[in-house]
Amino acid sequence: MACSSCSTDTNGVPKGCKSNGNCGTGSCDKLTVFDWLANMSLPNGQSKFDIVEVRFKNGRKHFFKNSKDLPLYIGDVVAVEASPGHDVGTISLTGELVKVQMRKKSVRYDSEEIKKIYRKATQRDIDIWQSARNKEKDVQRNARLIISRLGLKMKLSDVEFQGDGNKATFYYTADERVDFRLLIKELASTFKIRIEMKQVGLRQEAARLGGIGSCGRELCCSTWLTDIRSVSTASARYQQLSLNPQKLAGQCGKLKCCLNYELDTYIDALKEFPKTDKWLKTEKGDAVFQKMDIFKRTIWYAYKDQPMQWIPLLVDQANQIIELNKAGKKVESLEYFTTNVELPSESEVFSNVVGQDSLTRFDQKKKVRHKKRRKQKRKPPRKNA
After folding, report:
1. Residues 6 or more apart from 313 whose CB is under 8 A from it?
2. Which of 132, 192, 325, 385 sees the fewest Cβ atoms within 10 Å?
3. Phi and psi (nearest 5°) for 233?
4. Domains parsed from the chain with CATH numbers
């Protein structure tokens, strides 16, 4: 994802692109693609792949066919076919890597979605394109006023003008189905352009708008995450997290995408753990599962008649007791195995890093001043003279 200029020198200082440390290739984010096949020559007799990937506003990308065999490179501004008219975008990928992207997005070579490239954008095309882009904020503000006046239960998140300025796409989110036929008439008569309404999900809206997450970094969906998948509460259960929606939800209102990052590691670790519905049968009584610590590989059990007394066991010890129970044998007690378990000291017990602490724990507490209550004597009402 980075160019060779972003490497470091012998002292570990980043070289940068001779631009005070800034990247001179348009930043190394999810919109910028490093073509690692650019310096490799094709085999004899093989022609260059004639489909390129073009990027538009907010990371929207589509494939277009270079039917006129134009000399196109990454970063060129081109005028492409649209319905109707033409659109203007920037080439984000060329060559053999386009085949990989088409295979990833399940787009065939003869698909009707692949349209043509008209030409490299002229200065007139770029001027019209930039003037149309400058109108988007005002159009979005006025469109929200129209939506509020009509009383529609929808949220307008973004507006994108076509390159020729004759068409605009309105991106919105809504919980229910919205009848916006009257809205389209209002927008078309107000702005004198063709209107297209496109509904997006809450995750896609957060990716388009961007922002800062609770971790202090930019949102993953707006920087590098391109494959946005749904996250279920099972991801939090596998990681033994408290199902608190206020702490597990991101800015989109859905569960955070980062819950899936370490899920596979937790699932692999839990394969060695016994099932939580398994009882440990001992001569002292049956023991029931209470909680587990995946990192320390420790499980806590408690006797049914002594629920407040938790006994820690290692995973191997719990599995050994379960195997003995399957063979019809009972161990004497769980305390016999507890002597071999090394419990962490109080200094090694760390606070929960998931966010169970209060968010205001770093704020300075205000001193509460207790005012003495003074008994006020009731004065008799004054008599009018």
Report:
1. 298, 299, 300, 301, 321, 334, 337, 338, 341
2. 385
3. -70, -15
4. 31-119 (no CATH), 130-200 (3.30.300.20), 221-269 (no CATH), 273-342 (no CATH)
